[in-house]
């Protein structure tokens, strides 16, 4: 007999139709319905579909675990075999356990195939649907698992999607398109989350935007290989499927062994992209599932990489420390080049010992100067990598991920160290623990600069899955041993940003590109899933190292405002006037830092594709900070009005422009009230009439504060 199981979150609901001897079907996922018993009966009675001619005779339900063995064909969520047997299981024996109104566990067995399956679903208080699957081999023979996908059905009205792609220095780019093909498949085989095919997807109704429309967002919390599929079924519904991507032979289950999939995180919003962001941001901030920040604020960084590269000169470093402290910077991060043999990128990785030629007295003098200046020290590591030109590799070439008989390709002049190798793991952990015990290091910039190619372990099997788990374990053990330590996830910029690594890391390096024009689009894509305080965004030099583009000081610093602010430029090259400007902006950032890192992040829809408007609003709606970024040449000669519907319409707000444009006389014969002093406007006027913006240059930003008593 059919029945309903309802999973209830804060504002949303997932309704499953339970079908005898079959996996359940999602028949509703959206805002809370609070159905009566009569309405529940109607849901059950009228959920059946017609059975078309020239197809299987029984109705084919779009279940949460569609199987080839049941006729799911291209929707198949499972692939594997025992020798040449047990390759089309059906899992007819099902039991259900409802732990609460928001969670469900489904156990399923197939005695013929010798497999047991457990599917866990939870719709939590932040309206994030969490789902994972565990497969157990229950007979004596080993089982080869090839694919295991978590599957979620969407209604037919979902017709558009945003996919995310990119490359080095160009991450989190959005590709918006109609869903008009039978199937879309995206795979990543690079051994890390990747900056070109991250496991992120947004689907929604026609014309959805930042402020409006029904949308569903999906993110697989896994830092290795992955794949996702988006399929259109015969009645127009869509099926989204995510899972880890195995290399051939990678996941073999011995008798009694289990495999648990990475967790899929998904959410529904009827308030456009902004509401789905609020769901993800609140979940990350409040759930306790992810690494907590260990200070009362997120320190402002100075990172030495673009200031000095491999030229570690102690006299220059001390001057840089003094200059950083005078500007109000709070953390000094010593980047690559501090350890033995590391004079260029072709040598030294793996030899994690302080280079006595550069630091005759170790790091103690630098740390003392950093602490004396009121800052804390961070240190760069790349624990998963080794250069061929290193003592470690010369002693232990077998510790590298490789396939015997082949020449392992170099990437960034380095190999990948097999952290699943017990001795290699112990060596790296000992090196890091010794340094963290010896020196007062508050922060690790954990880098990972290459993709994995032929990543074979000592037996010649694929080692990607085990490498990811070993990396997680090492980070976790360091966090346990050093409770005050914070870790940044960096991987050629943003190639390892996901909710798997964020269980152990407190910050991510979003991109190696500090060009603010590029950062504007990078940071938008990032912000849909991750809150601004996790996003490392740095002020770089006037001429960006990655693009050669020139940008003003104001545009560079304000682009980095809505994030965890940092500096990458050699501060010793700044003029006295530039230092004064920066000190003013740093003080302003500190004034609004708590709001930026705790408020609700908002994007406003704009008619001008070269303009982005975004900001944060406090939970009680008494305070807000917005940026109007004119990144490209304005479409219209006269700027549009700033209309913010997210403030409290019953409150009055003092509206103040916090920066002033240069050369405005060239743009306007007559300015606007916003540029001439503080305004007093009601929330209703701001939402419905709006605030007239001035005409803006390309590559310029207005920073506007809203305060209500």
From TrEMBL:
Q: Which SUPFAM superfamilies match?
A: (Trans)glycosidases
Q: Would the keyword Nucleotidyltransferase be found if you checked this record's keyword annotation?
A: no
Residues in Glycosyl hydrolase family 36 N-terminal domain copies: 23-253
What's its catalytic activity? Hydrolysis of terminal, non-reducing alpha-D-galactose residues in alpha-D-galactosides, including galactose oligosaccharides, galactomannans and galactolipids
Keyword set, alphabetical order: Glycosidase, Hydrolase
Q: What is this protein called?
A: Alpha-galactosidase
Q: Which organism is it from?
A: Aquella oligotrophica
GO BP terms, alphabetized: carbohydrate catabolic process
């Amino acid at each position: 007999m059919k029945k309903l199981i309802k999973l209830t979150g804060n504002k949303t609901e997932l309704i499953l139709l339970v079908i005898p001897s079959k996996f359940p079907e999602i028949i509703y996922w959206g805002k809370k319905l609070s159905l009566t018993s009569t309405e529940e009966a109607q849901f059950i009675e009228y959920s059946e579909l017609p059975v078309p001619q020239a197809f299987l005779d029984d109705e084919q339900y779009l279940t949460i675990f569609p199987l080839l063995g049941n006729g799911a064909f291209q929707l198949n969520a499972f692939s594997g075999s025992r020798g040449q047997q047990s390759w089309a299981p059906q899992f007819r024996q099902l039991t259900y356990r409802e732990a609460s109104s928001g969670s469900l566990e489904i156990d399923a067995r197939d005695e013929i195939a010798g497999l047991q399956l457990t599917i866990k679903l939870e719709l939590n208080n932040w309206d994030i649907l969490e789902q994972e699957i565990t497969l157990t081999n229950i007979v004596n023979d080993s089982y080869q698992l090839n694919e295991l996908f978590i599957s979620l059905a969407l209604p037919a009205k979902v017709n558009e999607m945003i996919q995310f792609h990119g490359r080095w220095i160009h991450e989190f780019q959005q590709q918006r398109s109609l869903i008009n093909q039978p199937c879309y498949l995206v795979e990543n085989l690079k051994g890390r989350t990747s900056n070109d095919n991250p496991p992120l997807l947004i689907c929604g109704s026609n014309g959805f935007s930042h402020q409006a429309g029904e949308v569903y967002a999906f993110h697989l919390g896994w830092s290795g290989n992955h794949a996702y599929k988006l399929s259109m079924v015969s009645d127009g519904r869509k099926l989204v499927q995510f899972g880890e991507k195995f290399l051939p032979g990678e996941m073999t289950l011995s008798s009694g062994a289990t495999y648990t999939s990475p967790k899929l995180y998904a959410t529904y919003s009827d308030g456009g992209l902004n509401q789905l962001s609020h769901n993800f941001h609140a979940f990350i901030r409040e759930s306790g599932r992810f690494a907590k920040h260990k200070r009362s604020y997120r320190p402002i960084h100075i990172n030495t990489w673009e200031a000095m590269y491999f030229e570690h000169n102690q006299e220059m470093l001390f001057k840089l420390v003094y200059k950083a402290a005078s500007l109000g910077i709070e953390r000094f991060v010593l980047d690559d080049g501090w350890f033995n043999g590391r004079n260029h990128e072709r040598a030294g990785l793996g030899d994690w010992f302080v280079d006595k030629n550069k630091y005759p007295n170790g790091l103690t003098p630098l740390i003392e100067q950093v602490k004396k200046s009121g800052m804390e020290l961070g240190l760069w590591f790349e624990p998963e990598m080794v250069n061929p030109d290193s003592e470690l590799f010369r002693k232990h070439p077998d510790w590298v991920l490789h396939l015997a008989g082949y020449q392992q390709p170099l990437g960034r002049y380095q190999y990948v160290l097999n952290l699943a190798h017990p001795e290699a793991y112990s060596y790296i952990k000992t090196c890091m623990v010794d340094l963290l015990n010896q020196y007062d290091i508050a922060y690790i910039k954990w880098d990972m600069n290459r993709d994995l190619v032929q990543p074979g372990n000592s037996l010649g099997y694929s080692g990607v899955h085990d490498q990811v788990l070993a990396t997680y374990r090492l980070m976790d053990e360091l966090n346990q041993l050093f409770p005050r330590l914070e870790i940044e996830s960096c991987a050629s910029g943003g190639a390892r940003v996901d909710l798997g690594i964020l269980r152990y890391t407190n910050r991510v390096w979003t991109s190696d590109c500090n060009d603010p024009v590029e950062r504007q689009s990078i940071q938008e894509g990032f912000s849909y899933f991750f809150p601004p305080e996790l996003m490392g965004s740095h002020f770089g030099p006037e001429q960006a190292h990655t693009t050669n583009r020139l940008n003003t000081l104001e545009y560079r610093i304000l682009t980095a405002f809505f994030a965890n602010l940092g500096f990458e430029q050699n501060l010793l090259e700044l003029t006295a006037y530039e230092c004064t400007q920066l000190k003013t902006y740093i003080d302003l950032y500190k004034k609004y830092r708590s709001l930026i890192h705790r408020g609700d992040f908002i994007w406003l829809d704009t008619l001008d594709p070269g303009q982005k408007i975004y900001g944060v609003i406090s939970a009680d709606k008494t305070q807000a900070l917005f940026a109007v970024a004119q990144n490209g040449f304005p479409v219209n000669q006269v700027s549009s009005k700033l209309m913010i519907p997210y403030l409290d319409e019953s409150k009055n707000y003092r509206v103040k422009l916090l920066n002033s444009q240069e050369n405005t006389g060239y743009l306007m014969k007559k300015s606007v009230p916003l540029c001439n002093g503080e305004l007093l406007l009601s929330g209703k006027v701001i939402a419905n009439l709006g605030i007239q913006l001035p005409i803006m240059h390309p590559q310029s930003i207005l920073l506007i504060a809203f305060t209500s008593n």
